[in-house]
Amino acid sequence: MATKTEQELAVPVGVTLDRFIMHSQSAFPYATGELSQLLRDIALAGKIINREINRAGLIDIVGGNGTENVQGENQQKLDIIANIRFIRALKNGGEVCAILSEEEEDIIHTGNNHGKYVVAMDPLDGSSNIDVNVSIGSIFSIYRRVTPINGPASISDFLQGGRKQIAAGYIIYGSSTMLVYSTGDGVNGFTFDHSLGEFILSHKNIGTPSHGSIYSVNEGHYHSYPKFVQKYIEQCKSKSFSARYIGSLVGDFHRNMLKGGIYLYPSTNKDPKGKLRLLYECYPLAFIAEKSGGKAHDGFGSILDIVPQSFHQRSPIYIGSADLVDDVVTG
Ligand code: AHM
Ligand code: MG
Question: By alpha-carbon position, which residue is closest to atom 5 of ligand 1?
Answer without folding.
Answer: 126
